[in-house]
Amino acid sequence: MQAMTVLMNMKMKGLKEMTCMKFLPYLLVTAILFLSIYSAADTHPSGISSQWSREKTHAWYAKQPWLCGFNYIPANAISYTEMWMDYSFDPKRIDTELKIAEEVGFNCCRVVFSYVVWEHDPEGFHARFERFLSICHKRGLKVIPIFFDDCVFGPITDPVYGRQPEIVEGWYANGWTPSPGHSMVRNPASWNQLEKYVTDIMNRHKNDLRILCWDLYNEPTNAGLGDASIPLLEKVFEWARRVNPVQPLTTGWWNNNPKLNKVIFENSDIITFHNYLSADRLYKQIRELQMLGRPVICTEWLNRGLQSVVITCLPIFYHTNAGCMHWGLVNGRTQTDLNWGHRPGDPEPALWQHDIYRPDYKPYSSEEIDIFKFYLRTAKSLKRSRLLWADPVLPTSELLAQRWKYTFQDPGEKWADPDYNDSQWKTGEGGFGTAGTAGLAVGSIWQTGQIWLRKEFQLEDASVSDLCFRIFHDEDIWIYVNGEPVIYRAGWTTDYIVVPVPADKLRLFKTGRNIIAVTCKQTSGGQGVDVGIMNIKKNR
Question: Helix-strand-coil percent breakdown of the chain, rounded to 5?
């Protein structure tokens, strides 16, 4: 679950406010954005499997329904340690709760393992997980298991095997336990045991189609661990690649740590993320993530107090072809109806933060349940045929920096020509601008009056008719393709925008090799530039 501090930091970024009604008309035009040009082979020269190719991930995603589900913990469990303990694992209760989910139409759920239970009772854990998978399969739910979780909401940073704490009334998730625990995360000498844990479970289920994908690590670096989690995350990807399961691997984006996110994006087969913010901010984040060229699934959302609500957010997920799993199903011992950080004596929140059913299995909001049912029925009947995706052409540098040739010296009249010799230009990572430029991902510093950029890109089919630029510019920008001017825009943007390629300029794009050339001129104030290209298409 997203930490409060991270949400506050995101608010401080000053994202532009907009109403849901303002941007919804554009969903079918700009819903799916830039896709990455990175397409790794499926097998590393060492023989260890590597990140799936984009083509493989899209082929996998096309076989799935529109993924809509929930994060699951039974109402009788105060933590995932308690869920998997022998004394509290309750198949009858689980079946009853998941039957309710089946009636809504949900098709997937996400659940965290407990290392400490596996450590002390591996065969018991395996038996209980198999029973859980069987119940999920009966109820039409595919499962996303999670091996590790850094989150802490109470005093427990290292879980203990055995009976778990009792509820402290009014304390949000007071008995929550991380996995494996912060001490082991910080101690690489203990990781051999963690490798056995991962490979033991994964080898048993690497061909199990009841499992949708493997979410290796929930919110690494959370709860004060900082970068200590990152080396373990790298190892977990390595261990999982050695197993080479038929299901994709992922770890979810959840904060703005560039070191962490580089590991996540360069290793995840599919892109998963957490977003507990309002619909406009959710939409913006989906657009950014989809430019990585892989299927996108939000594995945590729904925070009513922060306007992450069903009525506005679920349509965003549906129309952008992004999967979604809210938190959570039936309210219980975790007390996740309360707000993050809620303590005994604090005022009761006006709205539940999470969960959609009360402990007596009645809906928290019948309207919410009806909305879920409507979109799930619609997606099933249309088989996602009305949803859009985008073909990769040239990504921006919003999430993964792209390399460009650039110069601050006037290169003369022919600088935009395809055959211009730019070998003496510098090579750097986009975007280009001054540090702290609001709305821009800055990879290389540009502080002069003007910058010139060049980059080669490939186009599989030049007959396309729906090419768009995605642009950040501050200030005036000129964009050329294969030596000819395509777009000029004066002034500046405060965020990335989408600009269709004019119909009479589509002829400039060629099948195969193309050159994009960009120049941006500074006039006053902050400065920055980043450009990408996408080709919007119907879902394949």
Answer: 30, 25, 45
Could you give the CA distance from residue 363 to residue 349 in angstroms, rounded to a whole number? 18
Which residues, including other chains, have CB under 8 Å from residue 13's CB and lie 6 or more apart? 438
E runs forming strands in 119-220 = 142-149, 214-218
The pairing of beta strand 323-327 with beta strand 68-71: parallel
Write down the pTM of the prediction.
0.81
| Encoded amino acid at 466, one letter | D
What's the rounded Cα separation, in Å, for the pair 278 and 312?
8
Q: How far apart are CA 30 and CA 470, in angstroms?
A: 10
| Rounded distance between C-alpha atoms, residue 534 and residue 532, angstroms | 7
Q: What contacts 226, CB < 8 A, 6 or more positions away?
A: none
Cβ within 8 Å of residue 267, ≥6 positions away: 51, 234, 237, 249, 251
**Sheet with 450-459, side-by-side order of all strands:** 426-429, 403-407, 450-459, 512-521, 476-481, 484-489
Tell me the DSSP string of 433-455.
E-TT-TT---SEE--SSEEEEEE
Instruction: Quickly tell me which residue has 């009513």 as its tokens.
Output: 304
**360-392 as b/e: b if 16+ CB within 10 A:** eeeebbeebbebbeebbeebeeeebeebbbbbb
Dihedral (CA of 432, 436, 441, 443) sign: positive
The separation between the first and the last C-alpha atoms of the chain, rounded to the nearest angstrom, is 33
Q: Which residues have CB under 8 Å from 499's CB, separation 6+? A: 468, 469, 470, 471, 487, 489
Asked if residue 450 lies in contact with residue 473, where contact means CB atoms within 8 angstroms, the answer is: no
For residue 201, the surrounding DSSP H or E stretch is helix 191-205
The answer to whether the bond into 475 is cis (omega within 30° of 0) is: yes
Of residues 485, 434, 479, the one with CA closest to residue 454: 479
Q: Which of 131, 43, 137, 122 is nearest to 92 (CA)?
A: 131
Residues 6 or more apart from 349 whose CB is under 8 A from it?
305, 337, 338, 339, 342
Count Cα atoms within 13 angstroms, Cβ side, for 379: 25
Cβ neighbourhood burial of 500 (10 Å; 0-12, 13-18, 19+): middle
Return all residues near 464 (Cβ < 8 A) that are at least 6 apart.
391, 506, 509, 535
Among candidate residues 254, 266, 265, the one with its CA nearest the CA of residue 299? 254
Nearest of 162, 187, 186, 185 to residue 175 by alpha carbon: 162
pLDDT in tens, 186-238: 999 999 999 999 999 999 999 999 999 999 999 999 999 999 999 999 999 99
191-205 helix and 122-138 helix, angle to the nearest 10 degrees: 40
User: Cis (ω within 30 of 0) for the bond into 124?
Assistant: no
Q: Which helix (H) or strand (E) holds 199?
A: helix 191-205
Query: What pLDDT digit, counting tens, does each position of 296-309 carry?
Result: 999 999 999 999 99
**CB 301 within 8 Å of CB 353:** no
* Model pLDDT for residues 267-289, shown as the tens digit of each residue: 999 999 999 999 999 998 998 89
